[in-house]
C-alpha cells in the first residue's frame, strides 16, 4: 500500500476525527523539517521524518480512542457484538440497556455500526413468527 493510501484510509469514529487530514498535516510537518534544515525544498529525509512523527501520532491516537465511535449507545452494542462473534439479536440489544432505550435510539446506533462497517444485519427464521434480527460483526471489524 502506498504512503498516500495509508494516510487517506477511511477510519470510523473518534479515531477518524483525531487523525483526519493526515496528508495535509504530514506535508506541513515535512515543510517544518525542511525549514529547520534551511533547505530550498522538501526532500526525502524531511518527508520520512514527518511520516515517522505521523506514525507515532496515529498509533497514540489508536491507543487512546481504540475502536470507539464516540456514540455511547453504539459503543455498548459494539462491545456486546465483539463478545459474541456469532451475532446478537435485537432482543439481546434491548436487554443490554434493561429495556430503557427507545427503539429509535437503538435503530440509530445499529445504523451507525452498519455505516462504520462494524455490523451486518441478518434474518433467521425460527418458526411461524416473525424472523429474528441477528446483527453479526463484519469479518474485518471484529
- The helix/strand class is mainly alpha
| Superfamily (CATH H level) name of the largest domain | Winged helix-like DNA-binding domain superfamily/Winged helix DNA-binding domain
Q: What kind of oligomer do you see? A: single chain
CATH class of the largest domain: Mainly Alpha
Indicate the radius of gyration in whole angstroms: 21 Å
Remind me, CATH topology of the largest domain?
Arc Repressor Mutant, subunit A
Q: What's the total helix number?
A: 7
Mean pLDDT: 83
Protein topology:
Layout: H1 3-7, H2 13-19, H3 22-36, H4 44-65, H5 72-83, E1 88-89, H6 90-96, H7 103-115, E2 119-124, E3 132-137
Antiparallel strand pairs: 1-3, 2-3
Helix pairs in contact: 2-4, 3-4, 5-7
Describe the fold and architecture.
The chain is mostly helical. The chain has two domains: 63 residues, no CATH class; 66 residues, Arc Repressor Mutant, subunit A (Orthogonal Bundle). It is built from seven helices and three strands; from the N terminus they run H-H-H-H-H-E-H-H-E-E. It has a three-stranded antiparallel β-sheet. A hairpin with a 7-residue loop joins strand 2 and strand 3. Helix 2 runs antiparallel to helix 4, helix 3 packs across helix 4 and helix 5 crosses helix 7. The radius of gyration is 21 Å and the shape is elongated. The model has no long low-confidence stretch (mean pLDDT 83).
Amino acid at each position: 500500500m502506498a504512503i498516500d493510501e495509508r494516510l487517506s484510509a477511511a477510519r470510523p469514529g473518534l479515531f477518524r476525527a483525531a487523525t483526519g487530514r493526515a496528508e495535509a498535516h504530514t506535508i506541513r510537518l515535512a515543510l517544518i523539517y525542511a525549514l529547520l534544515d534551511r533547505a530550498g525544498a522538501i526532500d526525502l529525509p524531511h518527508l520520512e521524518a514527518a511520516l515517522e512523527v505521523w506514525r507515532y501520532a496515529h498509533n497514540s491516537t489508536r491507543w487512546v480512542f481504540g475502536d470507539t465511535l464516540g456514540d455511547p449507545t453504539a459503543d455498548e452494542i459494539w462491545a456486546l457484538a465483539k463478545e459474541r462473534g456469532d451475532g446478537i439479536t435485537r432482543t439481546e440489544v434491548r436487554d443490554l440497556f434493561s429495556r430503557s432505550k427507545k427503539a429509535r435510539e437503538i435503530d440509530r446506533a445499529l445504523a451507525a455500526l452498519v455505516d462504520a462497517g462494524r455490523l451486518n444485519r441478518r434474518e433467521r427464521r425460527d418458526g411461524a413468527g416473525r424472523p429474528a434480527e441477528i446483527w453479526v460483526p463484519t469479518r474485518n471489524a471484529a
